[in-house]
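Researcher: Please generate the 3D structure of the following complex. Treat every line as part of one assembly.
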Amino acid sequence: MTTEGARLLPSARVAILGPGLIGGSLALALQRVLRADQLLVWCDAAEERALVSAAGLRVTSSLEESVQTDVVVLCVPVQAMPELVARMLAFLPARTTVTDAGSVKAPLLAALEPMLGARYVGAHPMAGSEKRGFAAARADLFDGARCFIVPSADEDRTRIVEALWKAAGCHLERIPAPTHDAIVARVSHLAHALAPALIRAAARHPSKPLRYAGPGLRDTTRLASSDPALWAGILSANRPEVLDALEAVGAEIAGLQAALRSGDAAIVEAWLAQARILREECAASRPEVAP
Amino acid sequence: MTTEGARLLPSARVAILGPGLIGGSLALALQRVLRADQLLVWCDAAEERALVSAAGLRVTSSLEESVQTDVVVLCVPVQAMPELVARMLAFLPARTTVTDAGSVKAPLLAALEPMLGARYVGAHPMAGSEKRGFAAARADLFDGARCFIVPSADEDRTRIVEALWKAAGCHLERIPAPTHDAIVARVSHLAHALAPALIRAAARHPSKPLRYAGPGLRDTTRLASSDPALWAGILSANRPEVLDALEAVGAEIAGLQAALRSGDAAIVEAWLAQARILREECAASRPEVAP
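Model: Done. Output below.
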């Protein structure tokens, strides 16, 4: 890995550990640009291996075999990553770079860097869905999506990881791990916490209101259909930032309650109008597609 | 109005007051089943009258002319309805039935019944969009949507209003006004309050997180793009129920915060899993299409 990563990827061998929605989509995305012998998927469950194999991907149940590659991408739930890395340490070649697709970065860095040093390059592609498993995977899931990269001290390793996510369709952005975690707490994790809170609160009435749910509530609570185990892991891993963001929501709700209690609809309108401006800004901003 | 409303509609003349998203869509929906001379749209703004007229609808700026019909449908913002009815009282024929498409029912009943008595039949079609104005109106907006009906003491008038909304494509459900308001606070108004709270809270960080918003946040906050003046009126009109529902959300958020602080991801997972069950139930339940 002495030359530039972007130029190395055409010959690099990549192993994807965990072919769920994200890992499966990454495998299908890289299948578009890599030769079949450059790509290997590791999976514990025989049933899922059959699905992956049927998609024309090479698959193995041997962790040892899977790490005999240039880049290993951890696509298991964040809370399972440290243990998986600990298992592979005994036979992980020094040349192999390890990256991941986890939704938090600082806690992973704290857990993985002591084991991997500069061999670990953090990554987080901002794409997903409330669906799960290889059956929901799509080759175009990452097309035009932003991928955050937490660089390691080894620039060559950082570049090969960047080349990989770029080849998968992502637009890249380098970021320090703590900044990443603060941002995703607010633009991703918070909505995954509030959508369930909303549906739980809406259900809480003797009139059984959920029978009458329409498209507004269904859209607003779509993320409440996400995998509970996966998201319990993510919210717990990013706990300080998620708690801080939940406090901010509590303060906003208190502000609306005060506006409503004032009896002055103009105050409520100003509160809603500020929110609308913020929403229009973020609905308009989309990441550029990587050239 | 002595024979059944449903059979009367084919010959009834209908006036729609306010051709916004809802009133405009109702006009376009009824245009599919009524003759041109049965349908009249009232509108103050000359610019909007031109749009409505271009869609092949008869339009007037005379409130007096518009109420010389069998059914008048109030499609202006809820807070403007009492004043509009007060203006039309002087020339409103006794035979004319008045209904509305407002998102709250008990406060409207309290304001309109003293003026109209049994001539007022409340209605609320559960359809909409964050868009506004006649330009966003669609003939199929109500197809398959539920329409709540708050019956008046006059069964014939209630039936002609039901016939109207059924002709527009709705599935009907009679309901007492207070029950209606408790339900819509939870399945509609609460999401319109929380989507803005979420986007406001997500924006509150030095890292300017909204630059990084993805489809999850955009979907969850879609309702924050709704018309602030319209929704300030609705939330204010349904204040007691909305405040109660916001308290329930606050309690749910506190529950999640406690689960996160416990450090036990299994508690967080159970909280998310319960929400997922509720969401799947409400995503599955859709109103039957009226036969």
